[in-house]
Every structure is written in structure tokens, then in C-alpha cells.
Amino acid sequence: MEIKVLKNILSVNEQIAQKNRGLLDKNNIFTINIMSSPGAGKTSLILQTIKRLKDKTRIGVIEGDVSSSVDAETVGKEGVPVIQINTGGGCHLDANMVNNALSNLPLPDIDLLFIENVGNLICPASFALGDHKRVIVSSIPEGHDKPLKYPLMFHEANIVLLNKIDLLPYVAFDMKAFSQAIRNINEKLEIIPISCTTGQGIETWVSWLVAQMRKKNST
Amino acid sequence: MHELAITQSMLDIVLEQAEKARAKKVSNINLTVGELSGFVEECVQFYFGFLAKETLAEGATLSFTSVPARARCQDCHKTFKLKEFDWTCPHCGGNNIEITAGKELFVESIEVE
């Protein structure tokens, strides 16, 4: 006997992601999901952004890693609430992990939340968390072919930050090929070249972020 | 790890339906898998063997139906199949696309005894 099921295997995750979104909206928390390869500069970006915004905005951070609390300790030194999630081998954050982290954060005291996903350009694209915007941190040493190899991740993103731009003179990175590869996947996707070391482009990123926050809060 | 968690979610859905139908055994599971879902069939087969042990689904075969990635152009509104490296609309050359198929990950049906 055949039984029709027609059930989405990821539906449990989608439902929890919607619950997270509801909780974030209720508390007026603008939430950014930061995704990249390992070592592209997600934590450095969060640190740079906290430095520029912490006097104006109340920031919180969820750190996702396979193991260790190195990132949470680094970010915690900036004096913002931070929760470390260890996925214990898992290759991405899922909505349930974020839900648990949210219940441990002082939500009424947060206006802007960064979720640092596990360093991986594949799996995080398939798992909704409940965030408002998705940011990809790409970096010069990774090479210009990343959008060709991981198209779904770039298609689902709202902005690409091209980090370590200060290394451009030393690396065979073809900026034109990178921009073209991104345009071929998602022509609306803006690229901001940044350097978390020299500070180049960080103001442009922060302006984008603040504008998106205002837009969200005015709707 | 990704496939392990997904295989467990899939098995939960299958067992829930099989128990509801008061089945004695699940003999086959039909899965619909989009090209962009990142679901690796060999891995799922491998984990399923372990996870399904001593459940109603032990020994069930897995049948996969793959769904090609398709998109609709937001500029000219035509639909097309996504190529591997280039998601440009072949009709108007635009790159403002909405993915309409290829992200599926469904338990389509199960066959029970």
C-alpha cells in the first residue's frame, strides 16, 4: 500500500525559524546572519562593527562554531551580550540552536543582533534561522571563483563584503571576474570591499547596516 | 553531519506516517530531491542503514527523484533551467531571477505492508 506524504523534511526548521522571527520582531531586534568560509573574517567584522556602533546601538551576538568559545570570549571583551553555540560537529546553525540561544540573551536590551554562522559556504544557505538579512563575507585570499562554486549561498544573500582588500596587491584575485560571477547569479547583490585590518570600507558597510535597520524599524 | 540530521528528520516523518497507518513494515520511501538542496544520496543511504535499525523502516529501499533547478526571470517573466555557473536569463540576458524549483526536499510517499 502506498501512502502519500508530501512533507518537507526541513519543515520543522522552517517553523522554528518563523517562531524566532516573531520573537525578534516583537522585541524590535534587527538580525543579521553572517555567513562565510572559515577564516574569511566574520568575527573581525563583528568586532569592527561593534566598535563603531556600540555607543549608538545596543548590540548582541550569537557565535556559532563546531567547537570552542574563542570567538565568544573575543567578542565578549567588547562588553556586549554574547552566546556561544557549539554545534558539536554540525556544519551549520539551525533554527532550534538559535531559538535556544535567544532564550539566553537579554532580548529587551538588544536592538541589533549578529548571528555568526559556522564557516561553510554550503549548508547554512539551506537553513532558515529567522534573521532579517543575510551577509556573506568573502575574502581576497579565497579567490574570485567562490560565487561560481557556491551559487545558492550568493543568490540567497543581501550583501557581499569582500574582506582583506588590503591583500589585493599580493594575491592573484581577479576583481572583474568576481563581480561578473556575482552579477550572473544575483544582479542586485551589492559588493562592498572592506578590510577589517585597515578599516577600509567599514564605514560604507556600517552605513548600509544602519539604513537597513531604519528601513525595517519604519515598517 | 548535515545528512545525518536530515536523514533523522526524514525517518521521523516516515515513522509517524507508518504508525498512523498501522503499518507492519515500510518497504520503500520515495524522496523528491532538488538539485540545489545539497542532499547527497550516498550519504543518506549510508546513515539510513544505521538509523532505521529496529524500526518499522528497517530494510526499506530509498527511491530518489531529482528535480532540476529552474528559475523565473523577474524582468521578462519567462522560466528557464539554471545552468551550473551562469544564472543569466537565456531569453532577455537579465540576472534578476527567482528560483522556482531545485530546493525541494520532500518525503513524497511511502510504501507499507
Describe this structure in words.
- The complex is a heterodimer of chains A (219) and B (113).
- With 219 residues, chain A is of the alpha/beta class.
- Chain A has eight helices and eight strands; from the N terminus they run E-H-E-H-E-H-E-H-E-E-H-H-E-H-E-H.
- Chain A has a single domain (12-214), classed as P-loop containing nucleotide triphosphate hydrolases (Rossmann fold).
- Chain A has helices at residues 11-26, 42-53, 70-76, 95-102, 146-149, 151-155, 175-185, 202-217, and strands spanning 2-8, 30-36, 59-65, 82-86, 112-116, 133-139, 159-163, 190-193.
- In chain A, strands 4-3-5-2-6-7-8 form a seven-stranded parallel β-sheet, with helices on both faces.
- In chain A, helix 1 packs parallel to helix 4 (95-102).
- Chain A is globular.
- The model of chain A has no long low-confidence stretch (mean pLDDT 95).
- Chain B has 113 residues and is α+β, with helices and mostly antiparallel strands.
- Chain B has one domain: hypothetical protein PF0899 fold, CATH 3.30.2320.80.
- In chain B, the strands form two sheets. Chain B has a three-stranded mixed β-sheet, covered by helices on one side. In chain B, strands 4-3-5 form a three-stranded antiparallel β-sheet, with no helix packed on it.
- Chain B is elongated and about 55 Å long.
- The two termini of chain B are 31 Å apart.
- The mean pLDDT of chain B is 93.
- The chains are: A alpha/beta (219), B alpha+beta (113).
- The A-B interface holds A 1-10, 12, 87, 89-92, 94, 122-123, 125-126, 148, 151-152, 155, 181, 183-188 and B 1-2, 5-6, 9-10, 13-14, 17-18, 21, 23, 36-38, 85-88, 94-97, 99, 103-113.
